[in-house]
Structures are given as C-alpha cells and as structure tokens.
Amino acid sequence: MRVGEIYDILDSLSPFELQEKWDNSGLLLGSKEQDARQIVLSVDIDFQMIEEADENTLFILHHPLIFSGLKRLLWNEYPANLLKKMICKNHAMIAMHTNFDQTHLNSYVFSRVLGFEDFESQGFVCKSVGEWNTDELLKHIKESLGLKVMRIVGYKDTIKSIALTTGAGASLMDNIDAELFLTGDIKYHDAMKAISKGLMLADIGHFESERYFANALGEHLKNLPIPVIIAQSINPYSYI
Predict the structure, then answer these.
(1) 111-156 per-position pLDDT tens digit
(2) In angstroms, rounded to a whole number, what is the distance separating the alpha carbons of residues 210 and 124?
(3) How far, in Å, are 25, 169, 202 from residue 153 at the CA level?
C-alpha cells in the first residue's frame, strides 16, 4: 500500500491543517510514493521498535520525531541516531500530533477511558458538567489512568464541572471554564496561577494521558489491506 494512500486516509480522518503553527505533523520521513508493508502505531519511537520492525514499515507517531529545525545530522545524537536506522530499513514516518488531539485523542480519553458520556468538545478541551465528590472522582481518575500518584492544586470538596486536555495543556488555563482541569506537565508557576484563579488542577501526566493514541487511531485503520500493529510505548519517566 502506498504511503500516500495512507496519508490521505489520515488527512481525511484528522486534517493535518488543524495542527498548531508550532507543530510539525505530517509526513516527516520517506516518500508518498514508497510502499508500506505494515503500519506501526505509537506515541513515540525507540531503537527496539526500529530493530523489530520489518523493512518498509510506516510508523505513525503521536509526537513528531523531527520537531524543531535540524541544523545537523550526527549519527550519535538524537534524533539522527534513530533516523539513520530508519533510513537504512526504508521506513517512513508520519506524525499526528495537535491535529489528532483536537479531533480524536482528547475525546477518546475523556469518554472511553474516564467514562464521561455527556460532554462537549471544543478544540483541545473536553468538558462535562455534573456533581461529584472530589475524593471519589480523583480515585476514579487515578484508577482509570493507572496512576500511582497524582499532583493536585487548589483542592475543592465537590466538583460541578470538569475539563480535560491530554498532554501538556496548562497554557490553556485562561480559557478553561470548569472547576477542575485535568492535564499533564503542570509547572510550579502554572500551579500558582491556578490558585489565584480559583481553579483546581490535577496533573494526570503527559505520557499517561496520551498513551491511548495508538488505540484511538487504530480503531479507524482496521480495514486496511496491510497489518496495523499497536506498539507498547515506553514512558521515559520512572518513579521511586
């Protein structure tokens, strides 16, 4: 199957033009004219994935391996060390990042993982209105996402509205119209700002909230005539 055919399917599903200006989604390695014998879906890519993948594999990743401008390609430095191995095996790579966040990933995590059935989705933010006991709600979120710990800012006894942005969404804080905001990568000054706004934050982790990318996308690629493999992405962090 040509990479270009798969690209067009992805573009119809989640238009690449929706990506943020700073993003680098799209075809990042290879050619639309080359053949792909199989597809591997993953949040990120690592040496083991490349080693285990057959030649002519198309990797569809959430995070762009090539993100900012590359001024040099040194084979002992990231990401050139990975790109070299991929080129040698005639791999191709497509990134679906902020476009897929808006069209699928946030709503998938909010509804399919956390179980909020009645919600609205606008841009990067999903929101639900109701009434929850905070302790019970936080326990449900931790268990659903498989979190061992969860940092909390501005605790409230009850919650009447909840919003979510997977990955790192603290920069959207000024646009959040909810009592509790779930997102990852919350920095110290984000926490201080949230307290001043009366907004409760729960840090659900960057990887932990986005690791469902492959499952969310894989549902839409089941009928392709080539194998679609969901890879087990590895969290770069460990906790002690």
Answers:
(1) 999 999 999 999 999 999 999 999 999 999 999 999 999 999 999 9
(2) 13
(3) 32, 15, 6
- What pLDDT, on a 0 to 100 scale, did the predictor assign at position 239? 84
Helices of type H across the chain: 3-13, 47-52, 80-88, 98-100, 106-107, 134-145, 188-197, 206-210, 213-218
111 CB-contact burial (10 Å; exposed 0-12 / middle 13-18 / buried 19+): middle
Q: Render pLDDT for 45-65 as a digit per residue (tens, 0 to 9).
A: 999 999 999 999 999 999 999
Q: How far is CA 21 from the centre of its chain?
A: 17
CA distances to 10, 17, 63, 99 from 25, in Å: 11, 9, 8, 8
State how far the alpha carbon of 91 is from the alpha carbons of 50, 118, 133, 207, in Å. 9, 41, 49, 24
Asked whether 131 and 161 are in contact (CB, 8 A), the reply is: no
Per-residue pLDDT for 232 more than 90? no
Distances (CA, A) of 129 to 10, 118, 177, 189, 202: 32, 8, 11, 27, 17
Strands of the sheet containing 26-29, edge to edge, are 26-29, 92-95, 57-61, 38-42, 228-230
Q: Which two tokens stand for residue 205?
A: 């982790």
Structure tokens at 225: 């005539």
Nearest CA-CA partner of 105 in 237, 220, 235: 220
The whole-angstrom separation of Cα 3 and Cα 237 is 32
